């Protein structure tokens, strides 16, 4: 019988994931500060025929969901982000050996906390990336949103990979 790993060894894998999440948060905050200082609210800087830098503030959630309300959503989405972050860290500790799963959670964690910082500091999320085609616009977003989206995609891909591996491992039912 082998002895259980020391507590410090069990925490080591999650420390790496948390360091990556911190790097995402720092990069997200730096870019938001840069664009908040570079552009005036609503101003656009054309980069490509389908992409602009802009400066917009979102008091709501994704796609400006609940943005028109009188401020309660700031605290709701802040609390939701903090609860989700705590749950994500718990999941990462429980499944530290699952690298794809933890990477997906790390991206989501970094993005969620990046937006929580905005809500606490400014009362809104700073968005600056704008894709468009002709008169059709995708809602503006930021690096935190990008990390969350990439993390969600990676989470789905990791689950599909895991499910396929489980199916392959099951014996066939032929007699």
From TrEMBL:
Gene encoding the protein: lspA
Organism of provenance: Verticiella sediminum
Protein name per its UniProtKB record: Lipoprotein signal peptidase
Residues the record marks as active site: 127, 145
Biological role stated in the UniProt entry: This protein specifically catalyzes the removal of signal peptides from prolipoproteins.
Chloroplast recorded as keyword: no
Membrane-crossing residue ranges in chain numbering: 14-35, 72-92, 99-117, 137-157
GO biological process, one term: proteolysis
Recorded catalytic activity of this chain's protein: Release of signal peptides from bacterial membrane prolipoproteins. Hydrolyzes -Xaa-Yaa-Zaa-|-(S,diacylglyceryl)Cys-, in which Xaa is hydrophobic (preferably Leu), and Yaa (Ala or Ser) and Zaa (Gly or Ala) have small, neutral side chains
Subcellular location, principal: membrane
């Amino acid at each position: 019988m082998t002895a259980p790993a020391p507590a410090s060894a069990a925490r080591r894998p999650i420390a790496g994931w948390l360091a990556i999440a911190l790097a995402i948060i720092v990069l997200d905050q730096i870019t938001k500060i840069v664009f908040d200082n570079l552009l005036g609210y609503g101003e656009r800087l054309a980069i490509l025929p389908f992409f602009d830098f802009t400066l917009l503030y979102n008091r709501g959630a994704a796609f400006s969901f609940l943005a028109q309300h009188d401020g309660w959503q700031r605290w709701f989405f802040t609390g939701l982000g903090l609860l989700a972050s705590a749950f994500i860290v718990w999941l990462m500790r429980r499944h530290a050996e699952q690298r794809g799963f933890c990477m997906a959670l790390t991206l989501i964690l970094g993005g969620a906390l990046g937006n929580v910082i905005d809500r606490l500091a400014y009362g809104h999320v700073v968005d600056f990336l704008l894709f468009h085609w002709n008169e059709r616009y995708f809602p503006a977003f930021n690096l935190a949103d990008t990390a969350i989206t990439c993390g969600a995609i990676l989470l789905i891909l990791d689950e599909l990979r895991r499910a396929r591996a489980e199916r392959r491992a099951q014996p066939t039912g032929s007699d």
